[in-house]
UniProtKB/TrEMBL annotation:
<keyword id="KW-0695">RNA-directed DNA polymerase</keyword>
<dbReference type="Pfam" id="PF13456">
    <property type="entry name" value="RVT_3"/>
</dbReference>
<keyword id="KW-0808">Transferase</keyword>
<dbReference type="InterPro" id="IPR041577">
    <property type="entry name" value="RT_RNaseH_2"/>
</dbReference>
<dbReference type="Pfam" id="PF17919">
    <property type="entry name" value="RT_RNaseH_2"/>
</dbReference>
<feature type="domain" description="RNase H type-1">
    <location>
        <begin position="210"/>
        <end position="285"/>
    </location>
</feature>
<dbReference type="InterPro" id="IPR012337">
    <property type="entry name" value="RNaseH-like_sf"/>
</dbReference>
<dbReference type="InterPro" id="IPR036397">
    <property type="entry name" value="RNaseH_sf"/>
</dbReference>
<keyword id="KW-0548">Nucleotidyltransferase</keyword>
<dbReference type="InterPro" id="IPR043128">
    <property type="entry name" value="Rev_trsase/Diguanyl_cyclase"/>
</dbReference>
<dbReference type="InterPro" id="IPR002156">
    <property type="entry name" value="RNaseH_domain"/>
</dbReference>
<dbReference type="GO" id="GO:0003676">
    <property type="term" value="F:nucleic acid binding"/>
</dbReference>
<feature type="domain" description="Reverse transcriptase/retrotransposon-derived protein RNase H-like">
    <location>
        <begin position="93"/>
        <end position="169"/>
    </location>
</feature>
<dbReference type="GO" id="GO:0004523">
    <property type="term" value="F:RNA-DNA hybrid ribonuclease activity"/>
</dbReference>
<dbReference type="InterPro" id="IPR043502">
    <property type="entry name" value="DNA/RNA_pol_sf"/>
</dbReference>
<protein>
    <submittedName>
        <fullName>Reverse transcriptase domain-containing protein</fullName>
    </submittedName>
</protein>
<dbReference type="GO" id="GO:0003964">
    <property type="term" value="F:RNA-directed DNA polymerase activity"/>
</dbReference>
Length: 322
């Protein structure tokens, strides 16, 4: 610290302790326990009487998610209530939602103790996929017993519910659990990439995708370019209702499928949404999309010009659409 001329505030730093409170949890060298104050606030909550009460409840449950098994699945009734009634006068707290609320209170009263994993310890992941939610738990073995490390749960919306049970867990587990505990490259490991592979990776195929939706239709465009500069252009018309993000998902998925069918081994994907770029999903091609290869001018030409040359149409209305 002295070498880089940095100082610490003694009032905000504590050294040499084995236990303490951190980010709303009581932490020691072996265990992580939720603070009783946070649990007490939820246990003393009355049944919600308005939308604002439901919003407060969802916020408090979110802070306890890591201790709750299948939290998204058990909270679906609250989220649906919040989504369905957008006006105060429309709010209804049904008997079914009340039963789910009481069940959630019972679970919070008996929250488990989590274990802090040590470096290089083997971790076990259990995943469960339902129609509207994906849940997972990270565990470790200690003295022939399986100890809880972390719970994670993700609700599925829109087109996400159409994926098979085998496909649904793929993105949820990777992004939310393992990133918290597993280092990208373990200490001592090294990547020995042959020179031939490095040369091939330097000249990958390139994929540009973009998608959009409107009231009555949705579609996307993609451009696949080989290392020699030859371009393969496709226009997609979707046979289902999709948001802009859904269209971007499907455009990337179709591009990957086409690249695989063409025997492409190394591909650099360029999308205009980081949400899409950090996800991986597969799709049933026959059910949800149709691919039409266009040889003449198409609606996706402005997208192509924007993605490759960063140019917009001269007309303001068309430029706004792009």
């Amino acid at each position: 610290m002295r070498e880089i001329n940095k100082k610490l505030n003694p009032k905000k730093c504590t050294f040499g302790i084995k236990k303490g409170t951190f980010l709303g949890c009581k932490v020691n060298t072996e265990e992580i326990i939720v603070c009783p104050d946070k649990v007490g606030v939820v246990l003393n909550l009355p049944s919600p009487r308005c939308l604002k009460d439901v919003q407060k409840l969802n916020g408090k449950l979110a802070s306890l998610n890591r201790f709750l098994s299948k939290s998204a699945k058990k909270s679906l009734s609250f989220f649906k209530t919040l989504k369905k009634y957008t006006k105060k006068s429309d709010f209804q707290w049904t008997a079914k939602v009340e039963a789910a609320f009481k069940e959630m209170i019972k679970l919070i009263a008996e929250l488990p103790t989590l274990t802090a994993p040590m470096e290089k310890e083997k971790l076990i992941v259990y995943v469960e996929a339902a129609r509207e939610a994906v849940s997972a738990v990270l565990m470790m073995e200690k003295e022939a017993k399986q100890m809880l490390v972390y719970f994670v749960s993700c609700a599925l919306y829109g087109s996400e519910t159409n994926y098979t049970l085998m496909e649904k867990p793929r993105t949820s587990v990777k992004g939310q659990i393992l990133a918290d505990f597993i280092v990208e490259r373990p200490e001592g490991d090294s990547l020995n990439t042959p020179m031939e592979a490095e040369e091939e990776l330097s000249n990958p195929w390139t994929l540009f995708t973009d998608g959009s939706s409107c009231i009555d239709s949705s579609g996307a465009g993609l451009i696949l370019t080989n290392p020699k500069g030859a371009e393969f252009t496709y226009a997609l018309r979707f046979r289902f209702d999709a948001t802009n993000n859904d269209a971007k998902y499907e455009a990337l998925i179709v591009g990957l499928i086409i690249a695989e069918q063409m025997g492409v081994k190394y591909l650099q994907a360029n999308v205009d949404s980081r949400l899409v770029a950090n996800q991986e999903k597969s799709v049933n091609e026959a059910e949800v999309f149709a691919v039409v290869e266009e040889k003449e001018d198409t609606w996706m030409d402005p997208l192509y010009n924007y993605l490759t040359k960063e140019t917009l149409p001269a007309e303001k209305e068309k430029a706004r659409v792009v």
